[in-house]
Design a protein that fits this description.
Elements: H1 8-13, H2 22-36, H3 38-47, H4 66-88, E1 94-96, H5 100-108, H6 114-133, H7 136-143, H8 146-167, E2 171-173, E3 181-183, H9 192-209, H10 215-234, E4 240-243, E5 249-251, H11 282-287, H12 289-318, H13 330-346, E6 352-354, H14 358-363, H15 369-384, H16 386-389, H17 394-397, H18 399-409, H19 420-436, H20 439-456, H21 465-478, H22 480-486
Antiparallel strand pairs: 1-6, 2-3, 4-5
Helix pairs in contact: 2-15, 3-4, 4-13, 4-15, 6-12, 6-13, 8-12, 8-18, 8-19, 8-20, 9-10, 9-18, 12-13, 19-20, 20-21
Length: 489
Amino acid sequence: MHPPDKGGLDRFFKISERGSTVEREIRGGIVTFFTMAYIVVLNPLILGFVKDADGKFLGGGAAPNLAAIAAGTALVAGIMTILMGVVANFPLALATGLGLNAFVAFSIAVKMTWADAMGLVVLEGIIILILVLTGFRQAVFHAVPSQLKIAISVGIGLFIAMIGLVDAGFVRRTGVGPVPVELGIGGALSGWPVGVFCFGLLLVIALWVRKVRGAILISILVTTVVAFIVEAVAKVGPTVIGQNADGSNKVNPAGWNLNVPAWPSTVDAVNFGTLGQFNLFGSFAKVGAVAAFLLIFTLMLADFFDTMGTMTAIGAEAGLLDAEGTPPNTQKILIVDSIAAAAGGAAGVSSNTSYIESASGVGEGARTGLAAVVTGVLFLVSMVFAPLVKIIPNEAAVPALVLVGFLMMQQVKGIDWDDLEIAIPAFLTIVLMPFTYSITVGIGAGFVAYVLIKLVRGKSAEVHPLMWIVAALFVIYFAIDPLKGAFGV
């Protein structure tokens, strides 16, 4: 007797084969969207207020065009995330890369026009795609020892937990003295928004340990309702409440970090003013070939290894890695990610890359590309209803990141801490990701330390040739500023 046909959707995405259900995939996709929807709001705030070398804002105008950046951000994120789900069948969402967008805005665009800067992003994506198609990027991935891959996953877990704590205001930068961060404001929790975060964190922990279905999504929705009530009663307002006479921001430290929970009064028309605003080779004429190549190299290394770490972490959390620690359809994942980098530049919203926040959807049960398709569709919907996305404050969404950080931390037991040849590189990988707020720095430090230790212990023959190449490239990456100085950049 043949088993019942579960339908084309189940067969295409291998939902039953991976131990999931359509309901779970949809729920996971929704959770991932809610966890990373902040980028639709945050990316315009990072890119929108920076003037290029010609004194113009992104999009070529004399005033910031935040609506166009938000629409472009949602459009590219939606299309590329759907492509990831359909082509690679992996529960991984993509959007404009945090850190990359700041680098583009503050280190590249100020030296040239925005179109030139986005042209560099497109070139970087094309180069990465070539490296994927030639098999080099995947070969590098296979050259990495499996326990270093575990360390990457654990480090990313701590990194996203730190993101959640910082975005909620639970942990803040001191800005003075020897201690870089502290609890709340002046060592104490202050303000209603951080209280809402604490409520959300306790709620998601309680639901999770009780094994409640949809724990993460329920916690986000319930905490959002609590945030609405708090704002209606306490009138907390945003963190930035205006400008001082000297042009600096007037700050309300106890305000909502990003979105103020309130119903929008109007829905703005969709504006795609940044699409196609790129000049492929304009940067070479503006800053010179050497400087342009160094900028591309910096972008490329960050993009190259962030995705490697992210897809490994997501695959590990979903239980999809093979015996070598490799996710299914690795080549397809990397191809889509590379296209996304170029697509982000072509759309004028900076390089798009894989998001570790996808782990929140995996934590909700997502195991296939159907979850990514759901997330992508919601991004496309958010183009029209962007103000509705703004009703979910960061403080309601980021408790999920802290929980997922714990889940990813559990993999640390797979590292042999008695073997110094792997333990020290793993340690550096894990601690430097949250401490430097960079996945790439953690991976780079781990790789360089691994090769060095093998060398000084007379075991250089055990190191894969590609690890030597990558470690050397990371040395260049860490020394990029002195190199720029040497070339007069």
